[in-house]
Specification:
151 residues, mainly alpha, 61% helix, single chain
Length: 151
Amino acid sequence: MDKIQEALNPEHPAYLAEPRRGWGNYTRRVSVLSVTDASDGRRLLKRFMPGLSAEVHRAIADGHVRKAQEHQALWAKNADEAMVETFARPFRVHDYRVSGIAREEFSDERKNVLRMCARRGSEHHRLAILHYMAAGHCHRKALQICRTAGL
């Protein structure tokens, strides 16, 4: 259980470890979170987290899905509150103008919280996909599981 809790932190050393430059035909050093191909991310994940069973990878992936959902809900709550503070009305889908922060008019504090929620939610979503793949699912199935969960 401790391994699962440790692995839910996007700052976990296995997610940030970088193999030598030129690994997998990349011209720069990459990590689990920076590879451009999901199968490469799965390979790195299995390399830097050896010995984990498919069940453990699945449990970690489920935890990342829950964390991504929490960040998604926190983002929505903060976007609503920022919209009410700035324009005195709730947030609507057509109000979204700037990636991650929704509106430039929001206060700097709100924009920082929105950026953090968007970034962390995205990281947890990506890690969920990679852990599902490490558990034996193909990329398409991993995406389907996340989409079913609302991500």
